[in-house]
Amino acid sequence: MLSPENQTWRTQESLIAEAVRDVASEIRLIDLTDLVSYFRIDRMGPVEALINSALELYFKPGKLSFAGAGSARVNWNGSIEMKLDFEFRHDGLNIFFTMLMHADNAAININYVSVDGPSSLATGHDLSERTAAALSEARLRPVENQLAWWRQASLSLPSDAAPPALADFLT
User: Fold this and answer.
1) If you write DSSP's letter for every residue of 91-120 in order, what string do you get?
2) What are the backbone dihedrals phi and psi of residue 98, each rounded to the nearest 5 degrees, phi first?
3) Sequential pLDDT tens for the chain (171 residues)
4) Is 50 helix (H, G, I), strand (E, B) or coil?
């Protein structure tokens, strides 16, 4: 496990923050009163459904998931703080982190990082490279790339060929 004071830890947080930027934006589209209400009455099922609907737009199934824990704080002055716990799992790399969201920004705090099996990661740089690759592999391709791929594939297919399968877009 890495120490939070370690520079590698901060690099990991930066990599994750960049990868989940779109997710944070999507979560901000959820009605805040609904989220706060569900947290206040300790109903994590609806929170999980709402959060997972944001995750499935950007990550392949099972790669990034809501960890079922979080909190919301709304002050009389209008400030809002939302904490949501997540798990990222890909190819033996497991990262547990908290997303701290405010009205106009968000931050990532890593709680734990583990690598399954014998660790071949000699340095923090190796872990950063593995994390960057895992996050990239776990993300769904942006729609623009999918459309460009579809156009290219359509032009190169004979007119009687079947269109590409959905699985082609997920790889």
Assistant:
1) TTEEEEEEEEE-SS-EEEEEEEEEESSS--
2) -115, 135
3) 445 446 677 888 888 888 888 899 888 888 888 888 888 888 888 889 989 998 999 999 999 999 989 888 888 887 888 899 999 999 888 999 999 988 788 889 999 888 876 555 555 567 888 888 899 899 987 655 555 555 565 555 555 555 555 555 555
4) helix
Residue appearing with tokens 């190819």: 91
| Virtual torsion, Cα 116, 60, 19, 115, nearest 10 deg | 0
For residues 125 and 120, what is the distance between their CA atoms, to the nearest angstrom? 12
User: Rounded to an integer, what distance in angstroms lies between the CA atom of residue 63 and that of residue 167?
Assistant: 16
Alpha helices, DSSP H, located in the chain: 7-19, 21-27, 32-40, 44-55, 124-138, 143-156, 166-170
Phi-psi region of 78 (alpha: psi -120 to 50; beta: other; left: phi over 0): left
CA-angle at 75, arms to 19 and 111, nearest 5°: 35
User: How many C-beta atoms lie closer than 10 Å to residue 86's C-beta?
Assistant: 23
